[in-house]
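Re-run with default settings, no changes from the original entry. Doing this only to confirm the output is reproducible before filing.
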Amino acid sequence: MKHKIFLTTKLLLTLILFLVLTVTTYSQDASIDKVEIKKDNQEIAVNDVVSVMVEGTNICLGCTLKHDKGASAQCKIYGHRHTLKVEKAYDGNGEELNYMAGWILHYLENDNSEEYITGHHNDELKIKGKVYTNARTLEVEEVKS
């Protein structure tokens, strides 16, 4: 009898654990498409791809974290890996996208972005491209001077 109760209890606990994991996984997967960022009355789904013109500073993330937070970045040995710290962003209609101000965007590596990933340290840039908001990644189409 004790053996049957033990097996029944074990089976129930396994079933409960399975259901909890299934519901948790489903909730996390389902929420990816539904999560929204709201700031200054602007909303976007985090999985959107947004055509933009962004203005910002080309910062080395390692150098910045080392200077601001004491991180042990070794850019002098391994080289700089730049990102764009957004000051202003505009959509294709010229509407300002306030929610992107302050974002740090990593460059999608391609022929148009290569020189900005390793060079142009602390330069102010205006870049036309696409932002993959869920990845905080910028695909460079054109750099304006």
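The chain is about 35% helix and 35% strand. Residues 22-35 have pLDDT under 50 and may be disordered.
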